[in-house]
Amino acid sequence: MIYLYGPAQDRIMEDSAVCVGKFDGLHRGHRLLIDKTREEETRGLVSVALTFKTSPRRFLDQDRFNIVDNRERGMLFERTGISCLLQWEFKEKVARMEPEAFLRQLVHDLSMRTLVVGEDFHFGYRGAGDVETLKQLAPELGFRPLIIPKLKEGGEDISSSRIRRLITGGQIEEANALLGYDFFCYGEIVHGRKIGRTIGIPTINLSPPEDKLLPRYGVYVTRVVMGTKSYWGMTNVGVKPTIEGRRAPGIETYLMDFEGDIYGREARIDFLHFVRDEKKFEDIKALKLQIGRDKEQIARYASCHPESLSE
After folding, report:
1. pTM score, two decimals?
2. What is the pLDDT of residues 81-101, one digit of tens each?
3. How many CA atoms lie within 13 A of 185 on its CB side?
4. Can the peptide bond before residue 208 be classed as cis, meaning omega within 30 degrees of 0?
5. Looking at the DSSP assignment, which residues form a beta bridge with residue 254?
6. Are the C-beta atoms of residues 217 and 246 closer than 8 Å to each other?
C-alpha cells in the first residue's frame, strides 16, 4: 500500500476509483466501501482511499475522541488490500471548500473516474453536498458515483458513533462484532511508577494519545501482541483510584505467564471481555484480594476461549 499526504497536484496519474470518509474505526461498513472500491480494479482503475489526518469532528468542535488514531488506522488499511491511502489535513481551507470544488480537486489530483461513498455521505462546506449532488455533477466532471447502502446489524446501521457508545459503555464484545476485529490500543511500552511490582503484580503501561477513545474504566481480558507472540493480559483502564487517583487515564496490563524486560518495545492491546468496573478499595490488601479474583476470572476465560489468543 502506498501512503500519500496531500492535497497536491498530479499525485496520481493513473485513472482511479476513490472512496472518501473519516473511516474512524474502519468498521465493517467502511470495509464494504473499500471492497467495492477494490472491485473497480477489474476495470483498470487504481483503488484509493481518501481520509483525514485530523478528524473533521475535532475541527467542527464535536466529540474529539477517535476509535483509532492515525497510526492504528494505517495498520488497519494495510489489511484491506487498497492500493493507495491518501491522508489530508482537515484544515480551514478544506472545511470551506464548496462541494463542486471538492469534487473537481479529486478529479484533477487523483484522476478520479469512480467515487465510492455511503448513502449518507455529505461533503463540502457545512456538509452542503450529498449523494444527489454527486449524481448531478458526475456527468459534467467525468466520474461515476457508486452509492453503497448502509450495512446494518440487529436492525441498526453499523456506524462509528454506535461503536463509540458500545466501547465507552463497556460492551466490548458487541463493539468488536461491529468492527469486525477486536478493539485495540497500540503504542510503546513506557515506564510507570512501578507500584505494581511492590505488591507482586508487575505491569506494563501504554500512554494513549489525547484523542484516543478509551473503553469504560475497568478491568478487561485482553490479548497482548508483541511482534509475532501473543499473551493473555489483565488490563486496567482508568485512573487507579486506590493507589494513585491520577487525573489522566492510563492503560495498565498484567501479562499472564510472562517474565522479562520489555520497556521500549511496542505492543498492541486487544480488548476481548469486560470483567468489572474500576473502583477505589479501602486499602492495598483489599485491592490485592480483588486482583487475585480478577486473575482467576481471566484464567477461566482463557481456558474457555483458547482460540482467542490467536488473531
Report:
1. 0.90
2. 999 999 887 777 778 889 999
3. 24
4. no
5. 234
6. no
- C-alpha 130/C-alpha 134 separation (Å) is 7
Strand (E) or helix (H) holding 250: strand 250-255
Measure Cα distances from 120 to 32, 203, 236, 296 in Å: 14, 44, 37, 46
Between CA 73 and CA 85 the distance in angstroms is 10
Beta strands at 229-238 and 218-226: parallel, antiparallel or unpaired: antiparallel
How far are the Cα atoms of 43, 193, 215, 225, 266 from residue 185, in angstroms, in the given order? 37, 20, 10, 11, 11
Phi, psi of 68 (to 5 degrees): -130, 145
Cβ burial of 270 (10 Å; 0-12, 13-18, 19+) is buried
Q: Please name the fold of domain 2-155.
A: Rossmann fold (3.40.50)
Task: Write the pLDDT tens digit of every residue in 220-261.
Answer: 999 999 989 999 999 999 988 777 656 778 899 999 888 777
**CA–CA gap between residue 295 and residue 196 (Å, rounded):** 14
Cell numbers found for residue 73: 488506522
**Distance between CA atoms of 17 and 46, rounded to whole angstroms?**
6
**Integer Cα distance of 286 and 267 in angstroms:** 30
Segment 175-197, tens digit of pLDDT: 999 999 999 999 999 876 555 55
For residue 256, the number of C-alpha atoms closer than 13 Å in the C-beta half-sphere is 24
Report domain extents, the chain.
Answer: 2-155, 182-306
Beta bridge partners of 116: 19, 146
Question: In CATH, what number does 182-306 get?
Answer: 2.40.30.30
